[in-house]
Amino acid sequence: MTTPHRITVLHGPNLNRLGLREPAVYGSTTLEAIDASLVALGADLGCVVTCFQTNHEGAWIDAVHAAATSADGLIVNPGAWTHTSIAIRDALLSVALPAIEVHLSNVYAREAFRHHSTIADIVVGRIMGFGAESYR
Ligand code: DQA
């Protein structure tokens, strides 16, 4: 039997408010429902999916470091840190894990300050604009 791929999903600030937060932008699905659907999808695909959300940048970085030994790949939605944080870029560079950058909204259809990502050039790929489906 092959070892299942281990995928860690890391959500950044304010994503715990999904379902309540600006539903016209982010939809009505809660983070709990998104995480449950990813765990179930992972099981179908032979992957072990672990999800984590924090509003604290240092805790998010600690989770990236921990994933270095506990995961085979990352799915990251760093929220607003995407646009501002060199520390999250350095954290992802410090671990040799492939990462996919995800956003619920199409950041290019929004304010100019959301058009810049500090991690766009170091991730394997970027998926955005499909609401909760972006993660899947
Ligand atoms: C977001 C987009 C970011 O610009 C914003 O700060 C978020 C959520 C998204 O998933 O669409 O918090 O990452």
Report what the structure shows.
This protein has 136 residues and is α/β, with parallel strands linked by helices. It is 34% helix and 21% strand. Strands 2-1-3-4-5 form a 5-stranded parallel beta sheet, with helices on both faces. Helix 3 packs parallel to helix 5. The longest helix has 15 residues, at 31-45. It is globular. The two termini are 25 Å apart. The mean pLDDT is 96. Bound molecules: 1,3,4-trihydroxy-5-OXO-cyclohexanecarboxylic acid. 1,3,4-trihydroxy-5-OXO-cyclohexanecarboxylic acid (DQA) is lined by residues 14, 77, 79-80, 82, 103-105, 107, 114. 1,3,4-trihydroxy-5-OXO-cyclohexanecarboxylic acid binds at residues 14, 77, 79-80, 82, 103-105, 107, 114.
Counted beta strands: 5
Structural class: alpha/beta
Shape annotation: globular
What percent of the residues sit in helical stretches (DSSP H or I)?
25-40%
Radius of gyration: 14 Å
